[in-house]
Amino acid sequence: MEKIVILTGAGVSAESGLGTFRDEGGLWSQHRIEDVATPEGFARDPGLVQGFYNARRVQAAQALPNDAHRALARLQQNWPGEVVIVTQNVDGLHEAGGASQVLHMHGTLAGALCASCDHRWKAPDEMKVGELCPSCGAPSGRPDVVWFGEMPYFMDQIYDHLAEASIFAAIGTSGQVYPAAAFVHEAIAAGSRTVELNLDPSAVVSSFDETRFGPASETVPAWVDELLGQRGTPAPA
Ligand code: APR
């Protein structure tokens, strides 16, 4: 049965009120990446970094899933084959929208990681500088978010999924950060049909068979209805 692999980026959560990174006024116009999203930045000023993620953690916890998140969950529930969601996002809105199989390749705001012993636990709303690890007791707690220069999570599983994908969709991502931006090439090599659903053309838009422009809360439900309609699954009333 046809497997669908979906890559999402910040654009899928934009209409839930969470900022994107590279749009006008985005997070990277407010903060320098090297200060808040690198291990060196954390070593230099852990208070600045903890504060950056504390603010995003509180904001993400208050955000609600939008129709794009819900449509992807509906696709997972109704598609006869496997639907794998690989997200670059660190918010929990895919799960809040009802999705099950979600691979957070850049980690999650809800997670905390011990830089000393690799123990992981549920992050408190506000992480302090020198947050104590509940396992080894070292003052080495950090957000369990993948920073620039660090290896994204689940890469072996992701490449296995891409090698089996019949359909690959990239939703709400600018295609400027690797390895995610190259997933479309893996999918093409596997013979997938590829589609980009985005507000603006991504940096890798020319690699896709099809592009649908517009806000994710409109383009994603329409795309899911079409896919499920092809299978005779009724669209929601
Ligand atoms: N609907 C659909 N797409 C949207 C919407 C929307 N409402 N709003 C914005 N977009 C699109 C933009 O056109 C852009 O292509 O979402 C994309 C957001 O791009 P980025 O801000 O670069 O976010 P993303 O691609 O997820 O960044 C990838 O970079 O900084 C790192 O780790 C961070 O995971 C992040 C990675």
UniProtKB/TrEMBL annotation:
Free-text domain note: 2 residues (Tyr-53 and Arg-56) present in a large hydrophobic pocket are probably involved in substrate specificity. They are important for desuccinylation activity, but dispensable for deacetylation activity.
Active site: 106
Cofactor binding, per record: Binds 1 zinc ion per subunit.
Name the UniProt record assigns to this protein: NAD-dependent protein deacylase
Record GO terms (molecular function): histone deacetylase activity, NAD-dependent; NAD+ binding; protein-malonyllysine demalonylase activity; protein-succinyllysine desuccinylase activity; zinc ion binding
Cofactor: Zn(2+)
Compartmental location: Cytoplasm
Record carries keyword Zinc: yes
Swiss-Prot/TrEMBL keywords: Cytoplasm, Hydrolase, Metal-binding, NAD, Transferase, Zinc
Name of the encoding gene: cobB_1
InterPro entries hit by this protein: DHS-like_NAD/FAD-binding_dom (IPR029035), NAD-dep_sirtuin_deacylases (IPR050134), Sirtuin (IPR003000), Sirtuin_cat_small_dom_sf (IPR026591), Sirtuin_class_III (IPR027546), Ssirtuin_cat_dom (IPR026590)
Residues reported in the UniProt entry to bind Zn(2+): 114, 117, 133, 136
ATP-binding recorded as keyword: no
Pfam families documented for this protein: SIR2
